[in-house]
Amino acid sequence: MNILVCVKQVPDTMEIKIDPVTNTLIRDGVPSIVNPFDSYALELAARIKDETGGKITVVCMGPKQAEAALKECLAVGGDKAYLVTDRAFGGSDTLATSYILSCTVQYLEELSGEKFDIIFCGKQAIDGDTGQVGSEMAEHIGLPQITCIQDIKVEGDKIVVRQEMDEGYNVLETKLPAVVSVTKTPYEPRYPTVKAKLAANRAQITHITTAELTNLTVERTGLKGSPTKVKKTFTPQRKGGGTIIQEDAPADSAVKLVALMSGAALI
Amino acid sequence: MSIFADYKNLWVFIETYKGKARSVGLELLNPGKELARQMGESMVAVILGDDNQENIAAAFAYGADEVISVEGPEFAHYNTEAYTYAMEKLVEKYKPSTMLIGATIYGRDFGPRLACRLKTGLTADCTALSIDEESGNMAWTRPAFGGNLMATILCPNTRPQIGTVRPGVFKKVEADSAHKGNVIKEAISVPQDIIKTRLVESIQEISGEIIKLEDAEIIVSGGRGLGRPENFSYVRELAEALGAAVGASRAAVDAGWIPHAHQVGQTGKTVGPKIYIACGISGAIQHLAGMGGSDCIVAINKDPEAPIFSVADYGIVGDLFEILPVMAAEIKKLKNA
Q: What is the ipTM for the molecules in this complex?
């Protein structure tokens, strides 16, 4: 199996704070992580590699510091990593980003002379939360997509996947090659061995820029190539100062709570 | 605006599951109507399915001015290729200015595939919709960073402008079964060779229990404080008394006490019910990111220092095993009064 995993480096939302004066997100000094859903995607890919052999290529679009995310991926199953980076790409929305990634897929396939069998993405990034890049990339390339999958099995030239649904799950199948996006899986992403971590830290990450992507039309990238425009951003109002109930007997607290909620016409 | 003179009408995609319209499509007819009126346009419900008769009637009852119906066995279940193919044909023919799609698992699969094929902008998982006064474009407002930041997005240069909208944000209007309108029946047959994905089976795992967290007005969630899987019965009992959906923290899901579909938070669902009751959930920021937008938050936890209390409107410090049964009983009393 020739597998591609697309990852994004995101700020760890656990560490995000709001500047109380400007009411904006403080991103300085916030540690970056591999988007959690992308880690699940990489784990599914690594499990396929464990079983059937093959190669995992990891790509990440972002600034130079996103090399750290790629190195983390190299330590847990990735064989080759590429950073897609160019000033021209700044401000790309999902349509422009997916276009750049689709050009990257084409470039890498020509470079190696080998098509990818499966392209993995996380179902969404925890910063933007859009969940659109995987499907849009599949459309740009002209591949089938299955989104929100929890598990995957390769059966000959097709995959059988389990897609999360509110009601339960769907079992879907498609012929390879295909793009899949991954939600939380039953498998925790593996930890790197010390040896793998050291090797990954020493790895050279190859950059892919507009110079390499000769198939790419620059006007379709960046702010200019993005049909959606951010008009404004704001921080939602946070409330504070709730009513705390702590009677001597827990049952009394419960009765009081229901009375308060009923009094406030909540129930 | 004149470059878009050919594009008119606001479309609402009515998603179906096992042949029945999902709530979110019918909900979107409510804001859709108001927005269409402000734009001086009509609101059209678009239904793809095997047999659309009942869903057409529902679309009118909930306010559609017009319905475009496409029927065929290939539309019986959602299929990315078939639905995108048909919708592309409809958009080419009728040129809507705006399209609303429910931000369900299917909607968030369909929206980006369609938007990319049409080379237009899509805004995901919106929680507020309005018209931008300056430009007349739709102003799509959505949360990012797990709800810590809101962004308002425009799609000024391409049409249709498309958004997926989070279920449960808007309420359905009162159904009026007498309301009728024009039905356009379009015959579209999808070439077999473009269909690449196949639904093998659709498993309904949890029957009887309401788990549509995004649609729920009230959610009762359980966390690590429940101690063991059987103790979810305490949460279920209260949920039942309230007619609420059952949610869970990541800790409870990771422990295998309840399926992931119930998980609220960063790697689970983002919800915004009227009342969110967190039982035995400490309130890690990843959990708060998924439910911080609830209208009223109730926290029950024995640790007075638990961070969940910092976002709670009402909090009880105490033993949930003693508190939840009494709450359930009190609520039943109220309901029967």
A: 0.92
